[in-house]
Amino acid sequence: MPDLNAEPVRTPTPDPRLAQLQQVIYAEIPICQKLGVVVEGMQDGALIMSCPLELNHNHQATAFAGSLNALCTIAGWSVTHLEAQRLDDQAVIVIRRSSIKYHRPVDSPSIVARCLLPTEEQRAYFAEMLAEKGQAKLDLVVEIDHGVAEDRARVVFTGSYVATAPETA
Q: Of 24, 29, 30, 130, which one's alpha carbon is 20 to 30 angstroms from that of 71?
């Protein structure tokens, strides 16, 4: 018999910006659909994105390095996109440079990437440069771990993203 005094189960209302981001990455970056990339939400100062190991494994039943790199690249692009969108700017966003370190294999059923959000100082500088120069840069860090407390992330990606205002692109 159900507990009539229990709190009703509520599903969180998805953030409309993140729901729109999910649509954008599937429409504008076709590999996202092939990889099964999902925008999970914001948590602890990071954008969380995931993809299933089932679609992204290698011959050793661990995550394929190319899929890990793609997920990290997409997570950084997504944070840059959200920052430009926050400024109501339709900037063209590209990655200028990236580096990735694979510390250990990733074998969890869901590959989870955490892109750390920019600091307030980074956000202010990004907004200022985009407004004044029509171009701005964000340096971002994305980490993938196993989902359990570990001493360090299994994968660490750094990327430098450039947003260019449409009239100067």
A: 130
